[in-house]
Amino acid sequence: MKAVGFTQYLPIDDPESFVDVELDKAVPEGRDLSVAVKAIAVNPVDTKVRAPKAEARDAAENRVEGGPRVIGYDASGIVDAVGPDVSLFKPGDPVYYAGDITRPGTNSEFHLVDERIVGRKPASLSHAESAALPLTTITAWEAFFDRLGIDPDGDDKGQTVLIIGAGGGVGSIGIQLAKQAGLVVVATASRPETESWVRELGADHVVDHRADMVAQIRALGLQYVEHVAIFNDMSHWAAAVELIRPQGGIVTIDNTDSPLPMELMKTKAASLHWEFMFARAMHQTPDMIEQHRLLSRVAESIDAGHIRTTLTHTLSPIDAANIRKAHALIESGKAHGKIVVEGF
C-alpha cells in the first residue's frame, strides 16, 4: 500500500523530511478496523513528532529506528475490513477518527484503528471536510465537558469561556461546541483574518492576545470568566489566572517547562486541567468508547446543521510533497482552521 513516512527527524524544508513509500497492508485483529483512507488532516502534533529532536547530538541520533515511520492523527475513510471482535462497524461504513499516537499513523492508504475511538462520518460532509474535525473535536469536547465539567446540554447556559488561541484547529471547533452548550464565548485573535474567522464561527466577543487581555476583557464589563481554555501556549498564564473567577477552572493543551506561579490559583481555589486527547487510547482506559460516542454525537449535530467543518485549506493528492507543504503551513504560525490533504 502507499504511505508517506520518514527515516530521519528533519526540518520541513529538507526534501527527505517526508518520502513516499510502499508498505505491506496490515490485517485487522481484535477490535481493529482496517480503513481505506480518503483524506487526512495535519495538526501541530504532527510537526512536533516529525521535528528534529532537541536532545540529539548528531544526525545519527535523529534517525528513525526500524523506519520508515508513518505518522498522522486525523482521517476520514471507508471501513475496508474488520477484526473478529468488532461490533460497532462493518465493511463499507464511512468513518472519521483521530487514531492513536502509539501506533502507525493515518498517512497511509489503509490504516488500522480501534473501533472504540472511531465515529460515524457526518453524512453531509465530504471526506476532506470530515477529516478536518476528529482530533480537534475530541480535544475541545474533552477540555470543556470532561475536564472543566461544563454540561454539553446547556445546564451551564450563560457562563463565559475565554478561548485563548481561538483561530486554530481546536479553537475553531471549540467555539462551536461552546455555543452549542449555551456559553458566552470570548475568543482571542491577533490578525484581521483570524478575527473575522472566529466571529463567523460564533464568538460573542474578540480580544487580541498580543495586547493586554485583562484590560480588554474588563472593558467588556467582565471582571472574571467562569472558564479559560488555553489552546495555544502557556505564555498567557498570568492573564488567565487573573481573569479566572474564584473556584473557576483553566484547561490547557500545551506542554510547558516554564514555572507556573500558583499563589493566585490557590487563593481563588481555582483548578488547572490538562487535556491530551490521546490519553484514552494510549492507556487503554475503560472509557475509551467515549471518543466513539462523542464523534458520533458531533456528526449528528453537523448533519442537523448546527456545527460546520473547520476546513480552510485542501491539498491533493496525499503524497510526500503535499504533506511537507501542510507541515510548512502549520509551522508558519499563520494558518487558521484546518489543513487537509486528500486522495492517494
Q: Please give the CATH class of the largest domain.
A: Alpha Beta
Work out the strand percent.
Answer: 15-25%
Terminal CA distance: 10 Å
Average pLDDT number? 96
CATH-defined topology of the largest domain = Quinone Oxidoreductase, Chain A, domain 1
Total domain units: 2
Question: What's the gyration radius in Å?
Answer: 20 Å
For this structure, the quaternary state is single chain
Give a quick precis of the structure:
By secondary structure, this protein is α/β, with parallel strands linked by helices.
What brief labels describe this structure?
single chain; 344 residues; alpha/beta; Quinone Oxidoreductase, Chain A, domain 1; Rossmann fold; seven-stranded mixed β-sheet; 29% helix; globular
What does this structure look like?
The protein has 344 residues and is an alpha/beta fold. The chain folds into two domains: 2-133 and 284-342, Alpha-Beta Complex (Quinone Oxidoreductase, Chain A, domain 1); 136-274, Rossmann fold, CATH 3.40.50.720. The protein has eleven helices and 15 strands. Strands 3, 4, 5, 6, 7, 14 and 15 form a seven-stranded mixed β-sheet that branches. The chain has a six-stranded parallel β-sheet with strand order 10-9-8-11-12-13, with helices on both faces. A two-stranded antiparallel sheet has the order 1-2. α5 links the parallel β9 (184-188) and β10 (205-207). The radius of gyration is 20 Å and the shape is globular.
